[in-house]
Amino acid sequence: MSYTEVSSPGGMSKRLTNRNTNRYSVTALFSMAAEQDVEVEDDLARAQKRLRELKSRISAQSKKNFVLDRDVRYLDTRIALLIQNRMALDERVEVEKHLEDMDATEGAYPDDRKLQQYSNLFFLLQSEPRHIATLCRLVSLSEIDTLLQTVMFTLYGNQYESREEHLLLSMFQAVLSAQFETATEFGSLLRANTPVSRMMTTYTRRGPGQSYLKSVLADRINSLIEHKDLNLEINPLKVYEQMIQQIEEETGQLPPNLPRGVPPEVAQANPDVQAIIAPRLTMLMEIANSFLLTIIESLETVPYGIRWICKQIRSLTKRKYPDATDYAICSLIGGFFFLRFINPAIVTPQAYMLVEGVPAKYPRRTLTLIAKMLQNLANKPSYAKEQYMMTLNPFVENNKARINQFLNNLCDIGDFFDTLEMDQYMALSKKDLMINITMNELYNTHSLILQQIEALAPNEKQHLRVLMDELGSAPPQVPRKENRPIELPLYSRWETPIQDLTASLMTENNLTQNDILYMETKSIFVQLIRSIPHAAEKRPINLPALAERAATTKDAVLVRKGIKVKEMLRELEEAGVVSKDDDYKLMREEVAAELAHLGNMREKVLMESRSLDAVYKTICDHNNWLRSQLEQYKAYLQNSRLTSSKDKGVTGVGVVSVNGKEKKPVKSTVQGPYRFTHAQLEKDGIIVESNVPDNRRPHIYFNITSPTPGTFIIALHYKGRDKAILEMDLKIDDLLEKQKDNKHLLDLEYVQLNVPKVLGLLNKVFVKRRT
């Protein structure tokens, strides 16, 4: 169901133009009940069940990835200090805690009374997003990631459920409104790295955003990176350096008229450099145009929430700055859509699982230039940070009007308030609201609210204040391995749960008992046709015969429904709502229309499932990649402990500590050599590029030795020769530092290796053997 339309029982779409749609909403509610009846077991029901499970898995996996990603970012900064030997012992222990696995058998739950209070608190936070919106603005940048984990992946973690999405976007609306109210100058809006900008970026990393990036960018990027040798560098200084390096390699000497270390203006003025750059500019603009066209044509597939945020940025800007030009407004929208969403995926497609492995040197640079061009187009700056980018201004000038039109079109999306009413009915029909939350998320949210309670609930009678007074002080964070997840039911102590949905609908919507009875009867007939074999094939539909057939089957559920619907049909006839004289024509037509709608729906469900299967695979791939990063950090810490033990005079022996438990001493003996063929390393993606001629590759092999923990020698050999052609000494510190600085290639003269995969290989072959 889309956000701006609901499906009518006849399969038609009807736009809700005002709030006087109560009866229609209730009709749609029964229509939705017919779609999602859990007792039905036809193809549609099975497809919908699988789709719901898939969406649930994507939501759960997205949360795991967010947590892992945060750990990797934290460890990136801490490992850098460890590499430089500037980390104290207690800091090392803290780093190691980030690598501990959670033990489901350890840790204690809060008592029942506390759990009830947390259930009330999180119901209030979820259903009244203004509290979270205020909290997100008040916390510091160091606190925002933990809060975002709870907000984006726990409180509103069901990314494909419209009720939670609506509530989350309501929170965004409040956060953005406040951001605009407090803004002091136009240029700084949404650009700085603030809790609000981090929120917006995190939102784009949820399942729907990742799905969009994969469907729109993956093919375009993969076709570009196939051309490993296509050099489109346009920085005159770099082109000049590459040019003289090539001349030197070919002639064996450097021409006197081409000195090294010239300033940028000299390089730019060189006619040979200009001749090299000219065709590259043309090609870059062609590639950038193809990316732009692909993005513009994807308008209808941009996730609703991302378009809705764009819409808020436009309307808030117009309100705050009524004199702002359309170009200025579009630059803010473009800042969010391109800077926070599109461009990170173009620059580092491997981190978004859009490509396998790290792109080679030249395509990587091309992707960076494409992202810069799109950013300049979206931002429309009057100057370029790098002077050489000014040469690409024709791309900006030629596409200014087109990008403005696209950014404005992004904002043309219906508001979700039209369908919130529908969602309220669906919420009434839900017996259980539940979130899956860890102990530390509970305690951290509790602590943050307590710190800001005066701003969040200044009045002591406000519900939030009452709950926080009862909860008292926040418990401390539990150790990582005791941080168990719990299923927390959500309910409000101030609202009586509605047991009778029908009575509620009648009271709130001025519906008669007959209105409800008619819709419920139709819904049961649809369920019967879906449940009884071949019933859907018989036309015209004979409603009394269908009810009789159900009532006389051997299935107890069908018997109950058959008897019930016969009685309901009789009541409707007595009330004059339907007539036996015309064979219940109105009811028959509506049941047939509902079935036609459900038939069309099955195809949509299957198509959505296929699309989300790809998303789920991508998210799982990303999870595996993040886990491999953490494994490499574990390997590094392992080696650093072995090395430091050796340095302290424990000659040849190191004590290994894994998850706080000491293992037996490990002798520091030479390990290896282990042998790997060129073909093997190429197949595993460890060799990214090779200058070895094809006919010689079968005769090439690599020996890898570890003389001491954390140090390695990679030797390149040619079969039949005793001596290695090439040897390289490596320290694991150097490899980790390369990885941290996004230098993903290791140059061995004849071959270039993928740094993360080399780390993985060393970890697998050496570190695990030592433990």
Automatic annotation (TrEMBL):
InterPro entries: RasGAP_C (IPR000593), RasGAP_CS (IPR023152), RasGAP_dom (IPR001936), Rho_GTPase_activation_prot (IPR008936)
A Pfam short name: RasGAP_C
SUPFAM superfamilies: GTPase activation domain, GAP, RGC domain-like
Occurrences of domain Ras-GAP (ranges): 163-379
One GO cellular component term: cell cortex
Keywords from the UniProt entry: Coiled coil
Record-level Gene Ontology MF annotations: GTPase activator activity
GO terms under biological process: negative regulation of Ras protein signal transduction
SMART domains hit by this protein: RasGAP
Coiled coil segments of this chain: 37-64
Superkingdom: Eukaryota
Protein name: Ras-GAP domain-containing protein
Organism: Hydnum rufescens UP504
